[in-house]
Design brief:
With 122 residues, the chain is α+β, with helices and mostly antiparallel strands. Helix content is 31%, strand content 20%. A hairpin with a 2-residue loop joins strand 4 and strand 5.
Length: 122
């Protein structure tokens, strides 16, 4: 347990009540939010560990004008766009995209406008 953080990731901006599968406030899934009080410490730590990467996925999905949908493949969470394009950010900060043409890599995604176009072209 980390004594320097709150008991819950909730920041009182819950969007799952509006139908989002991933909260735009805390980045937890609906299932994680609804089960939080029933989780043991180890389960909560796993959720806490996923939140920073999800926050980045949430920002990219918002820049694309969509809500974040998550898929889990081989133990990794991927964001999914409505056209089926999947994206994730590796631990080293590299953005990956999976589409019809396979997997592609973008090392510098600081230009959000260019990144949105790149995500949409798969």
């Amino acid at each position: 347990m980390n004594d320097s953080r709150p008991d819950s990731p909730c920041i009182a901006l819950c969007s799952t009540a509006l139908g989002d599968n991933v909260c735009r406030g805390c980045a937890r899934t609906f299932g994680e939010i609804s089960q939080w009080c029933f989780m043991d410490e180890a389960e909560r730590e796993l959720v806490w560990a996923r939140l920073p990467a999800r926050q980045r996925l949430l920002r990219l999905a918002a820049a694309c004008g969509v809500l974040l949908e998550l898929d889990c493949e081989e133990g990794e969470e991927w964001g999914r766009l409505p056209a089926g394009v999947k994206f994730r950010i590796r631990d080293d900060g590299v953005l990956l995209r999976r589409g019809v043409g396979g997997e592609a890599v973008m090392a510098d995604w600081s230009d959000l406008r260019r990144t949105v176009g790149w995500l949409s072209q798969a």
